[in-house]
Design a protein that fits this description.
There is one protein chain. By secondary structure, the chain is mainly alpha-helical. It has one domain. It contains 2 helices and no strands. The termini are close together. Keywords: Membrane, Transmembrane, Transmembrane helix. This is ABC transporter permease. It comes from Bacillus thuringiensis. InterPro entries: ABC-4_Integral_Memb_Prot.
């Protein structure tokens, strides 16, 4: 039961963290580009490879934590 709870809470926090992080990166990036009068046509706050690496890394940490706690 502890294992499942840790994985569910970890996945939920990861999803919320990525959502907030992408939103803040987009907002701050646009604000900075506006202040610098820079077009930044290739800028994307949602970069799938970095999100995938983050998910793999944190999922491994959550599994390790769940194993240690159960």
């Amino acid at each position: 039961l502890m294992f499942i709870e840790t994985i569910i809470l970890g996945a939920t926090s990861l999803l919320i963290g990525i959502t907030i992080g992408v939103g803040l990166a987009e907002g701050i990036g646009q604000l900075l580009m506006k202040q610098l009068e820079f077009a930044g046509k290739g800028y994307k706050a949602f970069y799938l490879p970095s999100i995938a690496i983050t998910c793999v890394f944190f999922f491994a940490l959550f599994v390790l934590s769940a194993i240690m706690n159960s």
